[in-house]
Design goal:
Layout lengths: L8 H12 L4 H12 L5 H6 L2 H4 L9 E4 L10 E4 L2 H13 L21 H14 L9 H12 L4 H8 L4 H4 L7 H9 L3
Antiparallel strand pairs: 1-2
Length: 190
């Protein structure tokens, strides 16, 4: 099976613009932000509750610890929320009808019901294809985060921590060498 397509910052802006012009915009922007900016897997996104991401005073947390039941494998992990993702999460929470702490963060069509990981995969695929990004899957945000950080010179150990990978070998398939990276590498030879 082919790896999920990666997207760059300009393509991510185009996806956010597409999302903003369609139904469920705040929900879809938040789920895309959790994938693209935070590197979460669909299982992790689908399991998030409102209390997972909010502090007691109602602001979005900087870091969230996910218990092992909400992650891949048998270990819990911490993920970090950057300022861009925080804006999308805050906007989503303000728009929710069902805001009790135990409610899912990403809700199905305005109901207090969570997506399953499989239904969220389908939602991601449909969103990408509707926006004209063929070859993208629910893993595209995660792969893009790793590849974009690598392109910016971020240490592979930091990328491993950001994505919650158990080993450096697990990170390697997520790194994509794009045209700009190849050109820059060849210029080092001059």
């Amino acid at each position: 099976m082919a790896q999920a397509r990666t997207i760059d910052a300009n393509q991510a802006k185009a996806i956010f613009a597409f999302i903003a012009s369609n139904k469920n915009a705040k929900r879809n922007a938040a789920m895309f932000a959790l994938s693209y900016y935070c590197g979460l897997r669909v299982k992790e996104i689908s399991c998030l509750t409102i209390s997972d991401v909010l502090t007691k005073d109602g602001t979005v947390k900087n870091a969230v610890y996910l218990e092992s039941a909400k992650t891949k494998g048998k270990k819990g992990r911490e993920f970090f929320i950057n300022s861009s993702a925080k804006k999308h999460i805050s906007a989503l929470i303000k728009s929710l009808t069902y805001k009790q702490p135990h409610m899912p963060l990403i809700q199905v069509m305005g109901k207090p019901k969570a997506f399953t990981p499989n239904s969220l995969c389908i939602t991601f695929r449909n969103l990408y294809e509707s926006a004209g990004f063929y070859g993208c899957t629910s893993h595209s945000g995660r792969r893009s985060l790793a590849s974009n950080l690598c392109q910016k010179g971020v240490s592979i150990r930091v990328i491993q921590k950001v994505g919650g990978w158990s080993s450096l070998q697990s990170v390697m398939p997520y790194l994509d060498a794009n045209e700009e990276m190849i050109k820059n590498a060849l210029e080092l030879q001059v």
